[in-house]
Structures are given as structure tokens and as C-alpha cells.
Amino acid sequence: MSSFNRHDLGLLLLRLGAGGVLMAHGTQKLFGWFGGHGIEGTGQFMESIGYKPGKASATASGLAETGGGALLALGLATPAAGAAAAGGMAGAAAVHAPNGFFNQEGGYEHAAMLGLAATSLAITGPGRLSLDHALKHVLDRGWMVPTALGVTAAATALVVGARNRRLDRPDKDGEFADQEKLFEE
Question: Residue 8: how many CA atoms within 13 Å on its side-chain side?
């Protein structure tokens, strides 16, 4: 049995950190844990910011974060897990983008960093301290990386694009949605 190196330990720490944060945010959406609003409350919020239907959007977002985060932390199905989490974070970044980059102003900094970490793990792989390694990488093949990231990018572009088109259309009173005002509510 070979010893583990700094590379493997670094990937483990990155997976546990990013995966843990993603799981915590996802369980807020799905179950209302850690001060979250659960599917109902998150669904109402999703509707208010243009992601419709709200409950389905909350469920998809919560599953991408919780499931993607859990799988990343375990180092299992790493390409799909990283892609799912990155797609969820791209959707979150789209909401925060009108507020600029920095998180203290409500910007997309946090979502972008988690999305980048998830994408990086999908590309680099989980390292030897992972379930993928223990299972001889049956769920972590080279062809899976571009496939998972490509499918997720296409789906995310469709979802975020539909949201943006909704925000650009006038409502029944002829008013356009103000993203910053929606985000503050």
C-alpha cells in the first residue's frame, strides 16, 4: 500500500471544506436546517427572483448543493458531483451578480468561489483518499469530466437564461423586475 502525499491530503481537505459548505447550504433549502427556510420558503424566494416554478427550483438547487457537496466530500462520482455543484453555484451567482463581486455587498464572491472549487475538483479528481479511488474510479473516468461539465453548462445556461428573460419582461402592470430590489426582499 502506498503512502499518501501532500497532493492527496490537500484534495481531501478541499473536498471536505467545499463539500461541507455546499451541503450546509443545500440542507437549508431542502430541510430548513441551519436557519434555512426549507422547500416552501426557499421556493417562494426563488419565485421572487425569477426562478420558476419556485418549489422545483428550490428542490433542484438544494439537491445540487446537498448531493453534489456530499459526493464531493466523499470523493465519489467526482466529475458529476463537481458539475452539479458548479451548476448550482452558477445559478446563485446570477442572482448575486447585480450586487457586484464582494460578499459583504451581497455579491457573487462566495458562490463563484464554491463553483470554482467544485469545478476544479471535477477536473483534477478526488485524490487517493476518496471513494472513487477505493472503487477503482468506475464513477470517475476521464470522459465523464467534459460530459458532466458540458451537460451542466448547457442546463445552467437554459435555466439562468429563462430567468433573465423573465426579469427582462414587463409584469402585468407594465413594470420590469428590478433585480436588486428583488434580492433585498
Answer: 11
pTM, 2 dp: 0.88
CB 129 within 8 A of CB 9: yes
In this structure, are residues 112 and 43 in contact, taking their beta carbons and an 8 Å threshold?
A: no
What distances in angstroms separate CA 51 from CA 46, 106, 119, one per listed residue?
A: 5, 18, 23
In the chain, at which residue ranges do the beta strands (DSSP E only) sit?
none
| pLDDT (average), residues 128-149 | 97
The predicted structure's pLDDT at residue 175: 52
Contacts 24+ apart (CB under 8 A), 157-160: 159/51, 159/57, 159/91, 160/90, 160/91, 160/94
Mean pLDDT of 9-18: 98
Question: For 180, which DSSP code?
Answer: H
| Contact by Cβ (8 Å): 34, 26 | no
Domain ranges of the chain: 6-184
DSSP state of 97: G
Please, is 57 exposed, middle or buried when counting C-beta atoms within 10 Å of its C-beta (0-12, 13-18, 19+)?
Answer: buried
26 closest CA partner among 62, 1, 73: 62
